[in-house]
Amino acid sequence: MSETTQAPLTTEEIVVNLGPQHPSTHGVMHFVVTIDGETIRECVPHIGYLHSSLEKIAETLRYEQFITNTDRFDYLNGLGNELCYVQAVERLLGIEPPPRTVFIRTLMAELKRISSHLVYLGCYGNDIGAMTVFLHAFREREPLMDMFEAVTGGRLLYNYLRIGGLRNDLPTGFTDQLHRFLDYLPRRLEEMNDLLTSNRIFIARTRGIGILTARQALSFGVTGPTLRGCGVPYDLRKLRPYAAYDQVEFDVPSFPEGDCLARHLVRMEEMNQSMRIIRQLMEKMPEGEIQADVPRRIKPEAGEVYERVESPRGELGCYLLSDGGAKPYRMHWRGPSFYNLQALPVMVRGGLLADFIATLGSLDPIAPDIDR
User: Fold this and answer.
1) Which of 264, 237, 263, 233 is nearest to 250 (CA)?
2) Whether the predicted pLDDT of 1 surpasses 50
3) At what angle do helices 260-284 and 174-192 cross, to 10 degrees?
4) Pairing of strands 303-311, 165-166
């Protein structure tokens, strides 16, 4: 009886489109993923679906008019965006804002950092399949939204900072409201750590997944929690202090593993450090004016400046070029999500398709911050 030979089992690569309309791509993003079975062979991000031309719009508006547009670059860090922009204009003008203004700006930026990380926490839990923590995180964010509304009148987009100052001072009762929140949040963060971070299913879905080395991260220009999750403690608030960060004590959390879990742990600890910063700011808060003397018609001398701050996603930069007129001659916005996303193909290559969303969510990307 003749022996029959069996042909070797072969697989065929197929191309899968993730997005641009997808519940877990954190916005209108499109990824063309080549898979062999369940293994990712290649990933090509396609961006531009939210291109808003805001950088070009800046050339058509006076310096003071463009402030409200900066909130739209990263809608979870509106006040941090405004801070970056107004500091850039102030450097062009040679203006120093009053001490109280500097402290309030720093305070609001740290509150936005906590708010942004709570959104990350809820959405990332949802990405992994833990919907309960989504409800908890958004519940804890609600008092922050109430405080933003009390101070600025808005809950998402603010137009609160001014060149040389602020639109208005902190309202009556804000301090008590803030202290109640600071007393309340640490317990809730411990609860959410028990719900998610310590959950063995969550750990299995994130530990050793989406690994990015420090060398790779630096080569792509990755910053923020994604870089600090590679063991590089790079934080502009420490390395190049701005606003009131040189007057407070805080630590820069970093973890060397470079995986999804490390990036998650960085953000969880950053919320604790932000609360630490806020308490010191409230203790040292000076009295006084909230607006410096600024010319009625803002026309900086010809020159250029690059201002950068530490957003919840990394290094946020604003480049302004002045020709001596009332409008910027050129404005460029360095969105950290754009640079962080460049590293995604390296992080997912060789991994499983099921781990793609876990890796993408660990970058905490914001689509308008990528496209601008």
Assistant:
1) 237
2) no
3) 160
4) unpaired
Tally of domains in the chain: 1
Q: Who's near 356: CB < 8 A, 6+ residues apart?
A: 18, 31, 33, 40, 43, 348
Tokens of 80: 């941090």
Q: What are phi and psi of 198, to 5 degrees?
A: -90, 0
The 10s digit of each residue's pLDDT in 320-360 is: 999 999 999 999 999 999 999 999 999 999 999 989 999 99
Question: Counting beta carbons within 10 angstroms of the beta carbon of residue 38, is it exposed (0 to 12), middle (13 to 18) or buried (19 or more)?
Answer: exposed
Range of the domain at 196: 13-371
Whether residue 107 is contained in a domain is answered as yes
**What DSSP letter does each residue of 17-59 carry, written as one string?**
EE-SS-TTSSSS-EEEEEEETTEEEEEEEE--TT---HHHHGG
3-class SS of residue 303: strand
Query: Peptide bond preceding 97: is omega within 30 degrees of 0, i.e. cis?
Result: no
Return the structure tokens found at 65: 């008019």
Residues 6+ apart with CB under 8 A from 214: 227, 230, 231, 232, 256, 258
Q: Is residue 8 part of a domain?
A: no
Q: Residue 365: inside a domain, yes or no?
A: yes
Q: pTM here? A: 0.94
Q: Which CATH number fits the domain that encloses residue 93? A: 1.10.645.10
Residue 5 lies in a domain: no
